[in-house]
Design a protein that fits this description.
Aminopeptidase; single chain; alpha+beta; seven-stranded mixed β-sheet; globular; 4 helices; about 150 residues; about 30% strand
Length: about 150
């Protein structure tokens, strides 16, 4: 299928917390080490305080847990607060199809799609730009990106 894998999303449970943490660690650790340094205790505490099961879905490919996506919604926007895909499942158009799903929803609901991306994560920035996102400055380490689908 031209490197495109079929995927499904399932609601996360409390039992998925460790999977979420491990996917995030696998995907982001090198960036975090470069920017702030990796402190396992701090990262565990941060995860425990910020794992929102009701906003998280597990990305599944052929019945295998392949990543996570966390989304926060309000009346005006859909904020993709994290999208992590394990390396084995990257470069298969899964991330772009998930983002496109939320762009479609935002268009139907007349909302903006928003996200943040680490400045060091140039590959993700290219993906988001290719999907029509506008990049703006956030802080020293992140960019804020958005796609206005409200019109």
């Amino acid at each position: 299928m031209n490197g495109i894998e079929p995927f499904a999303l399932r609601r996360a449970t409390e039992h998925d917390s460790e999977f979420f943490y491990n996917v995030k660690k696998t995907v982001l650790k090198a960036y975090i080490e470069t920017i702030w340094g990796w402190d396992e205790d701090f990262q565990r505490q941060f995860h425990a305080a910020n794992y929102h099961v009701n906003e998280t879905q597990i990305i599944m490919v052929n019945g295998v847990d392949a990543g996570t996506v966390e989304v926060k919604e309000n009346n005006d926007s859909i904020f993709i607060s994290s999208l992590y895909i394990l390396p084995l499942f990257q470069n298969k158009k899964i991330g772009s199809r998930i983002i496109s799903h939320y762009i479609t929803r935002a268009t139907e609901e007349k909302k903006r799609v928003e996200l943040e991306v680490l400045k060091l994560n140039v590959q993700a920035q290219k993906l988001y730009k290719s999907l029509g996102f506008t990049l703006t400055e956030r802080d020293d380490t992140k960019y804020f990106m958005f796609k206005d689908c409200s019109k």
